[in-house]
Amino acid sequence: MRNLVKSLRLTLVFCVFFSICYILVLWIFGLIVGPGGGNAETLVLNGRVVGAANVGQQFTKDVYFWGRPSHAGDGYDASSSSGSNKGPTNEEYLADVNTRIDSFLEKHPYLERNDVPSEMVTASASGLDPHITPESAYVQVKRVAKARGMEEGAVRSLVDQAVEKPLLGMFGTEKVNVLKLNIALEKADPSGKH
Q1: Per-residue b/e over 61-77, b at no fewer than 16 CB within 10 Å?
Q2: CA-based R_g, the chain, Å
Q3: In Å, what is the CA distance from 173 to each residue of 2, 54, 75, 118?
Q4: pTM passes above 0.70
Q5: DSSP classification of residue 43
Q6: 176 Cβ contact list (under 8 Å, min separation 6)
Q7: Which regions of the chain does DSSP assign to beta strands (E)?
Q8: What angle do CA 134, 163, 113 make, to 5 degrees?
């Protein structure tokens, strides 16, 4: 009977610890160390919140940089975040990728089929990726510059400034946040003629 009472007390202590104390420690850690004090970083343009920095958005107009395709709901729907679960030999998946390549080449006629970055035609596992590689941004510079009537060098410079380096120079890869880049683009070319 004494062992049963000890077991119940120990179970109660661990329940309290893991359901309250552990979560409290993580919350405090997020407040102190996490970006934005543990809150999502919202991005503002012209005094209006236009999105969260850590969730991708769908851009389809030629005047904007595009992100990765998304299979989350109707696209970038956080309530149904997931990949398609279709493997690289699935015929339906391959047909989708080929359709995306054709669409990408239609808007980027200066590229060869082999020059299309794979991430621009394949959806991510979460379907919410806010980043693309610098290479994927650079292949879009010509299209964006032409659509906006800007110099390619000016648009390329915005991409250069938007490249985020790996954490401490060694963790992760270089990346570009598409929403942040498009906000910088709007600020550089606020003519509103698009």
Answers
A1: eebbbbbbbbbbeebbb
A2: 22
A3: 56, 16, 25, 16
A4: yes
A5: E
A6: 65, 131, 132, 133, 134, 136, 137, 159, 162, 163, 164
A7: 42-45, 48-52, 131-132, 163-164, 175-177
A8: 10
CB 163 within 8 A of CB 120: no
Q: Describe the strand order of the beta sheet including 163-164 as a list of residue ranges.
A: 131-132, 175-177, 163-164
For the segment 136-191, what is each residue's pLDDT rounded down to a tens digit?
999 999 999 999 999 999 999 999 999 999 878 888 899 999 999 999 999 988 66
Amino acid residing at 175 = K
In sequence order, the 6+-apart residues with CB closer than 8 A to the CB of 134 are: 159, 163, 174, 175, 176
Residue 176's identity, in one-letter code, is V
